[in-house]
Amino acid sequence: QVQLVESGGGLVQAGGSLRLSCAASGRTFSNYVMGWFRQAPGKEREFVAISWSGGSGYYADSVKGRFTISRDNAKNTVSLLMNSLKPEDTAVYYCAAASRIPPVVTRVANYNYWGQGTQVTVSS
Prior knowledge:
Elements: E1 4-7, E2 10-13, E3 18-24, E4 33-39, E5 46-51, E6 57-59, E7 67-72, E8 77-82, E9 91-98, E10 113-114, E11 118-123
Parallel strand pairs: 2-11
Antiparallel strand pairs: 1-3, 3-8, 4-5, 4-9, 5-6, 7-8, 9-10, 9-11
């Protein structure tokens, strides 16, 4: 069982930056694929980024070059640094964990565990 707790959301002006963090419980954190998803009002939850167990990342095209995912396996944390934020980045951001390598990393259903979400609001 893994519990995920996000922090770091808030209100920021367009062009600004925020760092989200996700703290995970569990002794096998390093084996999990960790991801960030987001959900805007009236829209489906969508993939943002993932970090493989070895630390390399993969990003949605909409955030590539602006967001950076990183993880610290010793501290059981995964972070999402968001730069050059745009109003369209406004959403609730969720941390997710997959105990097995997702066949499709962008698919919500392939992640076993989810945090409660943290709100990110980008004003224009």
